[in-house]
Amino acid sequence: MTEKAIGRIVKSNSHIDYVCQVYAPLETDYNPQPEDYAFGRFVKAPIDAAGAREAVGIVYDTILLNPEYGSIGPRLNPPGDQMTLAPDYLVEKATAVGIIIVGLLAEDASEHGVVSFSLPVDAEVVGMSPAEVRRFHLVDESLSLGYLPQLVSHQSPLVTELGLTVIRHLLSLFSDPGEQRLLRTLAAHFTWQARVAPLG
Fold it and tell me: What is the residue extent of each domain of the chain?
């Protein structure tokens, strides 16, 4: 299965926290679907033009941009007729997603943790296939989640749910009993955190 580009990097909040603007309908040949940029989805983006090294990230937030919100002025025509009556009209509504970078994927190996390089503006963000997600988590041929401390220290209020979503996804990709045992232990920890943390 060929993975499709979902958008491009338009902003960074920090060295590991980026904002990707999702491609609007008809902006590219492929219209990204909600599952392409869902919460907890693994994505990648090239660090350099050659694409030999790609930063790996996880979608952790959604941002809806609507300049018309709060506008009470009269409309000259219904929104549904806009493309017919004014085909050159620029649609300013957009969907963006927050992405936390958790590592690096190269042809021969993967690295977990803070990546030394920053993503360039307009870098294209692509969803990762299950095979790529699995390969990213194999370090020295063993299951590794070396980015987990970095992930749980992120400031997002949904970080516990994000960790649980990631673990559940990995449970479907790794079937070895030892790997399953490790992942289920981590899932139990995140589940406990999700129940206890809101109580203070």
Answer: 5-199
